[in-house]
Design brief:
- The protein starts with 5 loop residues before the first helix and ends in a 15-residue tail after the last helix.
- Helices cover 43% and strands 16% of the residues.
- Helix 2 packs antiparallel against helix 4 (91-112), helix 4 crosses helix 7 (170-177) and helix 5 (120-129) packs parallel to helix 6.
- It has 223 residues and is an alpha+beta fold.
Amino acid sequence: MHEATAEQEHVEEFAAADPVRRCALTRARRPKEDLVRFVLGPDGIVVPDLKEKLPGRGVWLTAAHDIVAEGAKRNVFARALKTQAKASPDLADLVGRLLSEAALGAFALANKAGEVVFGHAKVEEVLAKAPVLALLHAREAAEDGRRKLDGKARAARAGAPIPAICGLGTDELGLASGRTNVIHAALIQGGAARRFLAAAQRLERYRKGSAAFTPEVKDTDTE
């Protein structure tokens, strides 16, 4: 495995116009939104920086549970930062919880903005009347119910696929929306809904792991 020089990683870290970052474990270069930034806290503990606002030199890992878990196991942070760094064994689970919280927070904002329609019948109705950004099915939703709504969504869009978020539970969605028994919902076109869709898709990719990402050409820089 080849490693880039510290100077090269430093340039990438602070090149604001560069939307691409290199995964410290796989060395693959990906769009920044496909990675998670980590920084070293004052106590020498590695901290995830999902909002990319914490001070200090950042280390980037592909936003996949298995990649983060392996990165923590190998402690790629110490190598990348050229200093002692401690990575918690449950770092990958922590990132997963933070991504889930971010997605549910975005869902709550989309609901407050009036960009979410709840209930099987209401979703069917809105599919026939208005542009729908995505469908939302709780983890507990019956397969038959999912299939029917997905089919109606495709029909409404002349056969074109429509995104469907399926990784969040009824209790989580209910807590975020202030409703009970949230099984099916639709996202109406709007800024808040688009932000939730992006956050929810990021969470789903993270949980699926590296298999959810297209293989990238690895960097060949040497020290």
